Amino acid sequence: MVKIPDNTIYDLEMSAQAPLSIDPTANKVINPNSGCRAFYQFGEFSFELYAVVRVIFDLIKEPCFSTLRTKEQLGYIVQTVPNKMSRVIVGFIQVQSSKYSPDYLEWRINNVLQTIKAEGGFSNERVENVKAALIKGYEQVHLSIHAETADFWSSMAEDNFAFDRNKRMIEALDKVTT
User: Fold this and answer.
1) How sure is the predictor about 2, in pLDDT bands with cuts at 50, 70 and 90?
2) How many domains does the chain have?
């Protein structure tokens, strides 16, 4: 179920081809607080796929933040987050705004992704830099018994029991290519 906030105004267009469509560029919202979290599902968990998704989301972080937060000033929070949910690899781009409607924010997120694609994606050098930074993070040892316990507990909670996941992520990241 989706609840549309009270006092929200949308420009609706009716035609034979599209019986009902919302114009996301209208941006007429009375409630000033809104947000959009665009979710992307990539498939069942594997270290190889998760490594690719981690690299992709690190690569799009800067263009998303630069465009949506800095240049267009759409919201006060802009995030790109890779994640695992119930053994499924997902990622999301989130924009929280006090000025723009969720439809408008989604439209702008999609535009940033289309722009990245139209510009040819990312260079080999940029991909290798991101991979190196991620590998460096996975090579760090736990600084406390609490951190190590939290890491192991997370593996058990995710029901994968991959207590060697840092080693396996490093191996998977090494295999990522453009």
Assistant:
1) very low
2) 1
